[in-house]
TrEMBL record:
The keyword Transport applies. This is Multidrug efflux SMR transporter. GO terms for cellular component: plasma membrane. Coiled coil: none annotated. The keyword Transmembrane applies. One of its GO terms (molecular function) is transmembrane transporter activity. Its main location: membrane. The chain crosses the membrane at residues 29-47, 59-79, 85-104. It comes from Leuconostoc pseudomesenteroides. It is found in: Cell membrane. Belongs to the drug/metabolite transporter (DMT) superfamily. Small multidrug resistance (SMR) (TC 2.A.7.1) family. It comes from the Bacteria. Keywords: Cell membrane, Membrane, Transmembrane, Transmembrane helix, Transport.
Length: 106
């Protein structure tokens, strides 16, 4: 169950960062509220995950999910453009997240 909480924390991380962008500097109240709710959800899910997972494992996976997800949202929703080299490093980040999970022994 801890891994599900960690995944939910990462997805909440993507939610709040996307909502923050959509809030236009918190001038759009509905998106500002989604940002705050997403932040709180992300922290609460992470809190649940680290009850049974080591912090040194959960934190990098949580931030990695948020980082990769934000890149994907940025490209698909906000039409961000990246070079091939940048994509290479995003792929390395995905490989690192999977590697950390597979070698952690938890």
């Amino acid at each position: 169950m801890s891994w599900i909480f960690l995944l939910m924390a990462g997805l909440s991380e993507i939610l709040w960062s996307t909502a923050m962008k959509l809030s236009d500097g918190f001038s759009k109240v509905s998106w500002a509220i989604v940002t705050v709710v997403g932040l709180i959800a992300s922290m609460l899910f992470l809190l649940q995950a680290v009850k049974h997972l080591s912090f040194s494992l959960a934190y990098p996976i949580w931030t990695g999910i948020g980082a990769v997800g934000s890149v994907i949202i940025g490209v698909s929703l906000f039409h961000d453009k990246f070079s091939g080299a940048t994509w290479f490093f995003v792929i390395l980040l995905i490989v690192a997240i999977i590697g950390i999970k597979m070698t952690a022994g938890e």
